[in-house]
Amino acid sequence: MYSGSIERVLVAAIVLFDGVCRFCNASVNWLIDHDPKRQLRFAPLQSPTGQRLLAKCGLPLDHLDSLVVIEGKQHYTHSSAALRAAGQLGLPWKLGMGFLLMPAFLRDPVYEWIAANRYRWFGVMEACRVPTPEYRARFLE
User: Fold this and answer.
1) For residue 9, which phi and psi values (nearest 5 degrees)?
2) CA–CA separation, 96 vs 17, rounded Å?
Protein backbone atom coordinates (compact mmCIF):
# COMPACT_ATOMS: atom_id res chain seq x y z
CA MET A 1 0.00 0.00 0.00
CA TYR A 2 1.20 3.54 -0.74
CA SER A 3 1.94 5.39 2.48
CA GLY A 4 3.79 8.47 1.24
CA SER A 5 2.64 12.02 0.84
CA ILE A 6 -0.37 12.56 -1.43
CA GLU A 7 1.29 15.75 -2.74
CA ARG A 8 4.29 13.74 -3.93
CA VAL A 9 2.03 11.28 -5.73
CA LEU A 10 0.18 14.08 -7.53
CA VAL A 11 3.30 14.85 -9.56
CA ALA A 12 2.73 11.72 -11.70
CA ALA A 13 -0.25 11.02 -13.96
CA ILE A 14 -2.54 8.80 -11.89
CA VAL A 15 -5.59 6.90 -13.15
CA LEU A 16 -8.21 6.01 -10.54
CA PHE A 17 -10.60 3.33 -11.77
CA ASP A 18 -13.47 1.15 -10.56
CA GLY A 19 -11.57 -1.85 -9.24
CA VAL A 20 -14.46 -4.33 -9.53
CA CYS A 21 -15.50 -3.36 -13.07
CA ARG A 22 -14.26 -5.86 -15.67
CA PHE A 23 -14.37 -3.22 -18.43
CA CYS A 24 -12.40 -0.77 -16.28
CA ASN A 25 -9.77 -3.41 -15.48
CA ALA A 26 -9.46 -4.30 -19.17
CA SER A 27 -9.04 -0.58 -19.90
CA VAL A 28 -6.24 -0.35 -17.33
CA ASN A 29 -4.52 -3.35 -18.94
CA TRP A 30 -4.83 -1.62 -22.33
CA LEU A 31 -3.37 1.62 -20.94
CA ILE A 32 -0.44 -0.26 -19.40
CA ASP A 33 0.21 -2.10 -22.67
CA HIS A 34 0.19 1.17 -24.65
CA ASP A 35 2.27 3.21 -22.19
CA PRO A 36 5.87 2.28 -23.10
CA LYS A 37 7.26 5.28 -21.20
CA ARG A 38 5.48 4.03 -18.04
CA GLN A 39 4.04 7.48 -17.32
CA LEU A 40 0.74 6.32 -15.81
CA ARG A 41 0.17 4.98 -12.30
CA PHE A 42 -3.05 3.33 -11.19
CA ALA A 43 -5.18 2.82 -8.09
CA PRO A 44 -8.68 1.41 -7.67
CA LEU A 45 -11.20 4.02 -6.53
CA GLN A 46 -12.22 1.65 -3.71
CA SER A 47 -8.68 1.27 -2.32
CA PRO A 48 -7.36 3.30 0.63
CA THR A 49 -5.06 5.22 -1.73
CA GLY A 50 -7.90 5.79 -4.20
CA GLN A 51 -10.11 7.06 -1.39
CA ARG A 52 -7.39 9.43 -0.12
CA LEU A 53 -6.83 10.78 -3.63
CA LEU A 54 -10.58 11.27 -4.18
CA ALA A 55 -10.75 13.23 -0.92
CA LYS A 56 -7.68 15.28 -1.90
CA CYS A 57 -9.41 16.17 -5.19
CA GLY A 58 -12.59 17.15 -3.35
CA LEU A 59 -14.56 14.33 -5.00
CA PRO A 60 -17.09 12.21 -3.09
CA LEU A 61 -15.66 8.95 -1.76
CA ASP A 62 -18.45 7.01 -3.48
CA HIS A 63 -17.47 8.52 -6.87
CA LEU A 64 -17.36 5.21 -8.76
CA ASP A 65 -19.08 6.16 -12.02
CA SER A 66 -16.03 7.65 -13.73
CA LEU A 67 -12.33 7.33 -14.25
CA VAL A 68 -10.40 10.04 -12.47
CA VAL A 69 -7.11 11.20 -13.95
CA ILE A 70 -4.84 13.31 -11.76
CA GLU A 71 -2.11 15.35 -13.42
CA GLY A 72 -0.20 17.47 -10.97
CA LYS A 73 -2.82 19.19 -8.83
CA GLN A 74 -5.52 19.03 -11.53
CA HIS A 75 -8.04 16.24 -11.80
CA TYR A 76 -10.33 15.19 -14.64
CA THR A 77 -13.40 12.96 -14.75
CA HIS A 78 -15.64 11.30 -17.35
CA SER A 79 -14.62 11.72 -21.00
CA SER A 80 -11.99 14.31 -20.08
CA ALA A 81 -10.27 11.72 -17.87
CA ALA A 82 -10.29 9.07 -20.60
CA LEU A 83 -8.90 11.52 -23.15
CA ARG A 84 -6.25 12.82 -20.74
CA ALA A 85 -5.14 9.23 -20.03
CA ALA A 86 -4.87 8.59 -23.78
CA GLY A 87 -2.91 11.83 -24.06
CA GLN A 88 -0.17 10.31 -21.91
CA LEU A 89 0.38 7.58 -24.51
CA GLY A 90 2.28 7.81 -27.77
CA LEU A 91 0.85 8.25 -31.24
CA PRO A 92 -1.76 7.58 -32.51
CA TRP A 93 -3.53 7.53 -29.12
CA LYS A 94 -2.32 11.00 -28.16
CA LEU A 95 -4.35 12.40 -31.08
CA GLY A 96 -7.50 11.61 -29.09
CA MET A 97 -6.78 14.69 -27.01
CA GLY A 98 -8.11 16.69 -29.94
CA PHE A 99 -11.57 15.69 -28.75
CA LEU A 100 -10.98 17.88 -25.70
CA LEU A 101 -11.73 20.80 -28.03
CA MET A 102 -15.30 19.51 -28.17
CA PRO A 103 -17.39 20.68 -25.19
CA ALA A 104 -17.81 18.09 -22.44
CA PHE A 105 -21.62 18.29 -22.71
CA LEU A 106 -21.25 16.73 -26.17
CA ARG A 107 -18.61 14.14 -25.16
CA ASP A 108 -19.86 13.05 -21.76
CA PRO A 109 -23.21 11.49 -22.74
CA VAL A 110 -21.42 8.70 -24.65
CA TYR A 111 -19.05 8.15 -21.72
CA GLU A 112 -21.94 8.14 -19.24
CA TRP A 113 -23.95 5.67 -21.37
CA ILE A 114 -21.04 3.22 -21.37
CA ALA A 115 -20.42 3.81 -17.64
CA ALA A 116 -24.09 3.20 -16.80
CA ASN A 117 -24.08 -0.14 -18.65
CA ARG A 118 -20.56 -1.42 -17.95
CA TYR A 119 -21.55 -3.90 -15.22
CA ARG A 120 -24.38 -5.33 -17.29
CA TRP A 121 -22.30 -5.65 -20.47
CA PHE A 122 -18.95 -6.76 -19.02
CA GLY A 123 -19.70 -7.99 -15.51
CA VAL A 124 -18.38 -7.35 -12.04
CA MET A 125 -15.38 -8.90 -10.30
CA GLU A 126 -15.73 -10.32 -6.79
CA ALA A 127 -12.91 -8.10 -5.50
CA CYS A 128 -10.46 -5.51 -6.75
CA ARG A 129 -7.68 -6.90 -8.92
CA VAL A 130 -4.35 -7.99 -7.56
CA PRO A 131 -1.74 -6.75 -10.05
CA THR A 132 0.51 -9.33 -11.65
CA PRO A 133 4.19 -9.05 -10.69
CA GLU A 134 4.99 -7.34 -14.02
CA TYR A 135 2.26 -4.70 -13.43
CA ARG A 136 2.76 -4.27 -9.65
CA ALA A 137 5.14 -1.30 -9.97
CA ARG A 138 2.48 0.60 -11.93
CA PHE A 139 -0.02 0.49 -9.03
CA LEU A 140 -0.06 2.72 -5.99
CA GLU A 141 -1.59 -0.10 -3.94
Assistant:
1) -65, -35
2) 19
